[in-house]
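Table 4 source record.
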Amino acid sequence: MYLKKIFSIIILAGIFPVLLLSCNGSNSGKSDNSGTGSGSEDISASDVSSTAPPTASPQPTEEVYTPKKYFTLSFDDGITQDSRIIEILKKYDMYCATFNINTGLCGASWDWVAGAVGCPGLTHIRFTEKELKSGIYDGFEVAVHTLTHPSLTDLSDSAVISEVGDDAKNIKKICGTAPVGMAYPGGNYYNDHIIRLILENTDIRYARTVTSTGKFTLPEYFMEWNPTCSFTEGNAKLLLKKLLRKECTEDMLFYVWCHGYELDAYDKWDEFEEFIKAVSEAEDIVKVTNGEFYQLFKDKIPSWKE
């Protein structure tokens, strides 16, 4: 009896491990959905996409504005000396000039200018309409200087409108482009009333004065656009050196104007060419016509007071 019990125990001891292994084997192919298994389960792409946080959309980066140094020129009266000016400008690929002309005086010769500047034999002859139509100013901006170069403050309202508006119409007819700017004739003969007449009755939106600032500041109002200097003041080269040395922390404008006959009268041609060459070589200066500068800043600088 005793031996029989021992024999039964031995048999059971051999069978139990086999049964235990069989049970474990039958469960090994089942996935553990509770997430607490041995960690050997495969993770599908769908599992990852359903549990990963959504990817944030890229935010547009705000463009950082970089201040610039600008340069522009203008010449008054539409006279024959402009041909030599244009020759020099083209030589240095400098198309940043605006020529202000009087279409009601085409072909006129003002002999009195020679006496006014003390230079006998000096000529002041305006281009004829035929010469203007030949394309003398092609590539440059042509702007208003009024029909007949009067003092605007001496005129009636209707005459002011005609002098400015009709000159603009003639320029469009002759040169093919409608002007948006002008230079006041004869100096600073303008006032608030005249400016409002021009703005309300013509398409002119900027006007240059002859009041030099000696600075590189932008105009407060485009209809009272004071230049940096006249070339004949003799300080243009010095101002250029000053501009080149300045750190550009805000937009700056170097505006130089002149009459072509003054380059004859004061023997300034060589000096003028040297100046233009120096500006052309300044890579950090943006060269623009008066009108191009106006288009760039018309949303920032008003034409006149509200």
